[in-house]
Structure formats: structure tokens, C-alpha cells
Amino acid sequence: MWQGYPVLIIATSYANKVFHPCYLAICNGESEDDFASLFKALQRLKPEWQPPILSEDASEAITAGFESVFGPPDVRRLCFFHVLKNVEPYLTFFSPKMVFAVTSRLIHLLQTCPDEVTLKTVVKLFVGKWSAKIVERILNFVQYFEEHWLEKNADRYEGVAIGYPSTNNGLESLTATIKREHTLRERYPGK
């Protein structure tokens, strides 16, 4: 916001992919406690509700805040846009053709796996192909991708929640509008 504090938004999105903003908060930071406060407000709205799916942008604070209020979700979905955004810096050293091959083919193939068996097969092929390269930058990319997207966040592919949104585009769109029209687009240097 204008004073430099982050604006946090909690929303729901159902199987029909309709987006419903629930809460907006202005906080000192983006910590587990900040997100937990928002989730507690959501819980007060409907105490018996237990959200089965958490869709977020790979923030440990969002996950920890959610789990402190609701416990672990059945499924944690990561907005696929954020996967690509986080992988992008590791691909800047490659040729455009190789970047296209990695992002457009292999990573999208991983994202669209319909079930765990298919995912494990594709992961084995993906890691095998790229680990065979002797180039250090490629090996660094493979190590990063394995740790962050194949091990730590492996349950975040299409098949874990078929029919539910694979992105949080509705929330991202609202956030972009708020940033564009009501902020200086600068982050608070605090927490």
C-alpha cells in the first residue's frame, strides 16, 4: 500500500474455478503469524469448514500459517506460473532453444501428469536426461529443480486435484490491479 506495508489477500476457488476473495489485510510483513491471522479470520467465518486444498506461491509462511490453523491440507497446489517464474533464473544461461525445450516441454509435461505413477516415470526420464549433461550450469539447474520442485513440492501437479484450478490467476489478477492502482509498488523494508 502507499505506506509500504504488504497487502495480503485470502480467497477461495471452487471446482467450477470461480474466484471468491474473502479477506484482505494490511500487515507488517508476510510471516507465518500474519498468514495465520488471516486463516483464523476465515475459520471464524465458517468454523466447521476444513479447506482440502491450499493453493499458494511456494511461500513457507503461507503453508505454515495455514497448517497452524487448519492442519495439513489434503493437497498443496502451487500456482504453475510461480514454478516457471522461479525456474527462469536458472535457465538464463542456456540457449533459447534449450530454454524452450526445458520450460515448454519437460516442465509442462511434469505439471500435467495425471497421476503419481506417471509423474514418477516422467521425473526419472527428466532427471536422467538432464543429469547426463556434463555442463555445470545444467547440473546446477537439475539439482535445484530436483530439490525444490520434484522432492519438496512433488505433490503439486495436475493429477493431485483434477478439476481444480492449477493456478491462482484470479488472485494474481486482483493483486495486480491493487498494485497498479493503489500502491507505489515498493515493499516495506521491515520483517
Describe the 3D structure.
It contains 7 helices and 4 strands; from the N terminus they run ββαβαβααααα. It is an alpha+beta fold and 191 residues long. It folds into 2 domains: 88 residues, no CATH class; 79 residues, no CATH class. It has a two-stranded antiparallel sheet with strand order 1-2. The longest helix is centred in the middle third of the chain and has 16 residues. The radius of gyration is 18 Å and the shape is globular. The model has no long low-confidence stretch (mean pLDDT 77).
Q: Give the count of structural domains.
A: 2
**Proportion of beta-strand residues:** 5-15%
Question: Measured on Cα atoms, how large is the radius of gyration?
Answer: 18 Å
Helix/strand-derived class? alpha+beta
Tell me the strand order in the biggest sheet: 1-2
Individual helix count: 7
Q: What is the β-strand count?
A: 4
Give the low-pLDDT segments. none
Helical fraction:
40-55%
Q: H/E element string?
A: EEHEHEHHHHH
Envelope shape: globular
Report how far apart the termini are: 16 Å
User: What oligomeric state do the depicted chains represent?
Assistant: single chain
Query: How would a crystallographer describe the biggest sheet?
Result: 2 strands, antiparallel
Average pLDDT figure = 77
